[in-house]
Design a protein that fits this description.
Layout lengths: L3 E3 L2 E3 L5 E5 L6 E6 L3 H16 L1 H4 L3 H17 L1 H12 L3 H21 L7 E2 L5 E9 L2 E5 L5 H14 L3 E5 L6 H13 L6 E4 L3 H10 L5 E5 L2 H14 L3 E4 L5 E4 L5 H13 L11 E5 L3 H13 L19 H16 L3 E4 L18 E4 L16 E7 L2 H8 L4 E2 L1 E5 L3 H10 L4 E4 L14 E2 L2 E2 L4 H6 L2 E9 L16
Parallel strand pairs: 7-8, 7-10, 8-9, 10-11, 12-13, 12-18, 13-16, 15-16, 18-19
Antiparallel strand pairs: 1-2, 3-4, 5-6, 6-22, 11-21, 14-15, 17-20
Bound molecules: nicotinamide-adenine-dinucleotide.
């Protein structure tokens, strides 16, 4: 049974355990100890204590940077182990997991550099003061992560929060609980003081809730569904603590009449079917201009049919299993409901079968033609290899359809006309816009959502500032007592 990390102690909790199930074949990937409420309490206390120790509190930024570099080197050295664990936990193709190990190491290196950029301003004073602002860590950060890409999504929280000088209690998803434990191990090996990174395992309803509500937590950083995010935001609001929320999406991927068709087709496939559609930024609404609609749909449908659904270990697999059997059932239910509401399956729509496909949580890549933009499939996040295909007439029609969702995470625009692309990029409400490309997320570029896709930003320099508080300091330059109480000018 895998233990969780509190301070420098690997714990078994009070004996309760849970399993991570391998979605490739239904076998048990790992059995894990479940943290209790009192373990969560201890983890927050360990973080607080570590934060207050001079070894961390007074550490110079460049020394913190060195620790982050060591963490990055250890990720590189353990890249294959991390990749194998992630793929076993959530079924992602092994090539994508390997790529993510590399990206995670890069995130630590980037924030090791950003660490030394917390320069602040000297503010011209309106009185006789020397006035400056400076940045301090927020304190104890609760980091809560989803299951779709724990290697990168957890690193995206740990690296900036550590660079900013905080202490962390990480709770990974119960579906993919193992990467966080590896990160806990690597943090200790890198030489972070015990308690700076604690990792508790268990379910959102118990461990996650206890963590967010803990009075010793100073900030929450959450990536996950909008429903959970709203619940967490309520607790954080009640406690008046800052909260980063990276939530769901239903992003439009738009093809104008003048687009490079082959480039756009690949962009659509990659946008929705990579990682079996389990990406917050998946291009799950494919919007095609009417002049090319029929030809484009025919080309896209045949390209989708040609995608190989199979084992994440096969080099030519395009669509591997989804993360769990439970999630497969959820996706299938969505598709059935969409079909019953009038959507037409251009391809997919049923469970794939034969050989390995019978054992795992596989979903056929599915394109649903939707004519009624008000139907639920056009609005709700499915988080699987399922896209809605819709038609638009002109730009005004496009903006109406594209913005007709509660989400605002990302958007893809495919056109040869960059003036048009620029207009569309400004009119569509989304945190990230790609023109003639899709799903690019670079660590030095801020990332986050508009509308119900979230609050706050990860990545970029601002991504570290989110984990800091700004302090203003006034130094009095005048001699003598402060002129108070005030005296009348002609008083003797
Ligand atoms: P989820 O919201 O069910 O769970 C996410 C994490 O929160 C898990 O660790 C879970 O245990 C925990 N949790 C759930 N309820 C909680 C509560 N009340 N208090 C504290 N913790 C709680 O999401 P998921 O199913 O794991 O992930 C899929 C979702 O994540 C999708 O909606 C997807 O769009 C979103 N996501 C967003 C981004 C982004 O950057 N915007 C990235 C990846 C995934």
């Amino acid at each position: 049974m895998e233990k969780f990390l509190v301070g420098d102690e690997w714990r078994s909790g009070n004996g309760e355990s849970f399993e991570s199930i391998n979605p490739i074949d239904g076998s048990v990937a790992a059995t894990l100890a479940q943290a209790s409420e009192s373990d969560v309490d201890d983890a927050v206390r360990a973080a607080r204590q570590a934060l207050e120790t001079p070894a961390w509190r007074d550490m110079k930024v460049h020394e913190r940077g060195k620790l982050l570099h060591r963490f990055a080197d250890l990720i590189d050295q353990n890249a294959e182990t991390l990749a194998q664990i992630q793929t076993r936990d959530n079924g992602k193709t092994i090539s994508e997991s390997r790529f993510q190990s590399k990206s995670a190491a890069d995130m630590f290196r980037y924030f090791a550099a950003v660490c030394e950029t917390t320069e602040s301003s000297v503010i011209p004073s309106r009185g006789n003061y020397f006035c400056f602002s400076s940045f301090e860590p927020v304190g104890v950060v609760a980091a809560i992560a989803p299951w779709n890409s724990p290697i990168t999504l957890e690193a995206q929280k740990l690296a900036p929060a550590l660079a900013a000088g905080n202490a962390i209690v990480l709770k990974s998803s119960e579906v993919t609980p193992c990467i966080g434990l590896q990160y806990g191990r690597l943090a200790m090996e890198a030489g972070f003081p015990p308690g700076i990174l604690n990792v508790v395992t268990g379910f959102g309803a118990s461990v996650g809730r206890a963590l967010v509500a803990h009075p010793g937590v100073d900030m929450v950083t959450f990536t996950g569904g909008t429903k959970s995010g709203r619940e967490i935001a309520k607790v954080a609001g009640e406690r008046l603590i800052p909260c980063i929320l990276e939530l769901g999406g239903k992003s439009p991927n738009i093809v104008f009449d003048d687009a490079d068709i082959e480039q756009a087709v690949t962009g659509m496939l990659f946008g929705i079917f990579s990682n079996a559609g389990q990406s917050c930024i998946a291009g799950s609404r494919i919007l095609i201009q009417e002049g090319i609609y029929d030809a484009f749909v025919a080309r896209l449908t045949s390209a989708t049919r040609a995608l190989k659904v199979g084992s994440p270990y096969d080099a030519d697999t395009a669509v591997a299993p989804v993360s769990s059997f439970h999630h497969r059932d959820h996706i299938e239910h969505f598709v059935e409901r969409a079909l019953s509401q009038g959507a037409v399956a251009l391809c997919g729509g049923s469970r794939p079968s034969g050989g390995i496909l019978d054992k795992g949580a596989y979903v056929q890549p599915t394109l649903l033609e939707v004519t009624d933009e008000r139907s639920s499939v056009a609005h709700e996040e499915i988080f699987g290899p399922v896209a809605c295909v819709m038609k638009f007439q002109d730009e005004e029609d496009l903006y109406r359809i594209a913005n007709n969702t509660a989400y605002g995470l990302a958007c893809g625009i495919w056109t040869a006309d960059y003036k048009k692309a620029f207009r569309a990029a400004r009119r569509i409400k989304a945190g990230t816009v790609w023109v003639n490309t899709y799903k690019i997320a670079e660590v030095n570029v801020p990332f986050g959502g508009f509308k119900q896709s979230g609050l706050g930003r990860e990545c970029g320099i601002e991504g570290m500032r989110e984990y800091m508080l700004e302090k203003s300091t006034y130094l009095n330059l005048a001699d003598g007592p402060i002129p108070w109480p005030p005296r009348a000018a002609n008083a003797v």
